[in-house]
What we know:
By secondary structure, this protein is an alpha+beta fold. Helix content is 61%, strand content 10%. The protein has helices at residues 20-34, 49-61, 69-85, 91-107, 110-132, 140-219, 224-253, 270-279, 297-317, 347-350, 358-369, and strands at residues 283-289, 322-329, 333-340, 373-379, 382-390. A hairpin with a 3-residue loop joins β2 and β3. α6 (140-219) runs antiparallel to α7. The longest helix has 80 residues, at 140-219. Mean pLDDT is 75; it is low at 1-14, 346-355 and 393-397.
Amino acid sequence: MTLDVGRQIGPGGRHPRVPSWVGDVIAAVFIIGSAYLPFPQAEFRPNDVLTFALVLAPALILPLRRRWPIAVLAASVALYAVAGFTESLWPGVVLAIAIAMFGAANRLPRRAALITALVTIGAIIVINVLASLSSLLDLRAFAVAVTVAFAAAAGDGARSWREYIAAITERAERAEQTRESEARRQVSEERLRIARDLHDAVAHQIAVISLNAGVASSAIESRPEAAQEAVRTIQAAARTVLGEIGSLLDVLRTDDDDSAITPQPGLDWLDELVGQFQEAGLAVTVRAEGDPAAVSGAAGLVAYRVIQESLTNALKHGAESRAHVLLQVDDDVLRIVVTNPVVPSTEASIDGAAGSGLGLVGLRERVAAVRGIVETGPNPGGWRVAATLPLTKVSDL
Length: 397
């Protein structure tokens, strides 16, 4: 039944395609050639022009099986009936029925192919029974029926294999598209993370530099000692920010996933962070309720960034150069409240109306990433940033 070689081997044309006429030529050679084999029985050999035409007919109609599989199968069975009732039986007709049955089962749904095969086998048995009433016996009907059944099974198997290949190809393509989408999503998330880290690393140091540059500019003549101190603070802040940027770039340039990476800050770095702001001129008061050392992982990093961003805004926009940090650590939640007095005219600036607002936007995204909640806004006497971070299973977030 492999004579139907005109079919494409695989979906999408990925394998070399054998021209359909090659299979038709091979089938015609076998059908016509079988009429000239030296069979001892006379009914297996054509003996006149009409009989030869009937032998040739199956070879002529088989190329149409790809467009009209049922019609070609029916025509082949009709030629078989003509052979039977004319007391002839050419092997080529049986071969034509088998090829047509294979083509029909290869193209029809399984249920339709099964019905077609049963009807064909039934027709062959009826034809042989009726023909045997004249002169043609035959148990050969059962051999033809078995041949048709085998052709139907082979055609159904070929169709099932083709559908299986198409299905796994589709799944592979869908998986590839999913991987590409996931890669694009990860790239977008990585860009956002880099932007956040860059802002966190630079923002408060730039605020320190800007503030002390103003102090140095105003005090350079009247208070040279204060100006020199401000310049030293600027130098220290510049070195710090350059080091942080360099560390970030080193991480981005590293190809080895197992390479040593600078540890992410947490609440264990809080004293150092507060010291930096105090050196910049911001009086920071910290009050902790509970054990901040119990906070680690993603929650610890987010808590550090919340405090860093809040104190940076207090330094840039606050009044009286002071801020208060409250940490409340419970068994399953961490609460952070940062407050500072502000000049009323600068409240809108803190929330991003006058500035870029990227700091608070990134802060909200970081808090949301660990399923926390953050609130920012004015409160009596100043500005308030309050964040609530869950501590349960944060390592899985």
